[in-house]
Amino acid sequence: MLRAAVALLGAAVLATACSPTSSPTASVSSDAATSSRSGPLISPPPVTPPTPPGTNLPAFACKDTTGGSAGSTGVTAVRIDQHAGYDRFVLQFDSHVPAYTVKRQAKPVFTQGASGQTITLSGTSGVLVVLRSSSESGTYSGPTDFPQADFAVLKEARLTEDFEGTVSWGLGLASPACFRAFSLTNPARLVIDFQTPIL
Questions:
Q1: Which of 174, 159, 43, 62 is closest to 110 using CA atoms?
Q2: Percentage of the chain modeled with pLDDT above 90
Q3: What is the Cα–Cα distance from 30 to 158, expressed in whole angstroms?
Q4: DSSP one-letter code for 39
Q5: Which of 144, 171, 175, 181 gives 127 a disulfide partner, CB atoms 3.0 to 4.6 angstroms apart?
Q6: CA-to-CA distance for 188 and 167, rounded, in angstroms?
Q7: pLDDT tens digit string along 47-82?
Q8: What are phi and psi of 110, to 5 degrees?
Q9: What is the DSSP letter of 152?
């Protein structure tokens, strides 16, 4: 009889273990997930975007200007270009931007170096750019006259002197214009922008 009871108990345990209702089931909570973090959330500091190239320029001024530094240098390139709001004249150097003056003139009439001859450029007014301790003869072989009839203000740029350490460029303008002159590096450049009328 004891043997029969043990057999019956074993059969009951086996039936319970094999029953599909006895297996554990996983349940998914319908509650929203919560963070274990406590206290205020700290946001990262705002990132200031870099200043786009060309936006940190000096203001236009209607007066003569000087700048640069001492020491001999050679002109390696001359460029002119148009941009929205200004016409640009650029002198590039092999080492640094030399001492310079940018002087306004009532007329686009300039004296050519040691010869003393005068030349008249396109336009109705002018600007004379003079570089000290500079030369072009051994470092620059490009054009020395840039006529630009289609530019709004800068109508012509011409080399007027390259003699005994002085380089001069005459700039003929359509009308008197305010300008800004500043230096750039890598490579060394003197940049002169002439303000154009806003249409």
A1: 159
A2: 67
A3: 82
A4: S
A5: 171
A6: 16
A7: 444 434 456 889 999 999 999 999 999 999 999 999
A8: -135, 155
A9: S
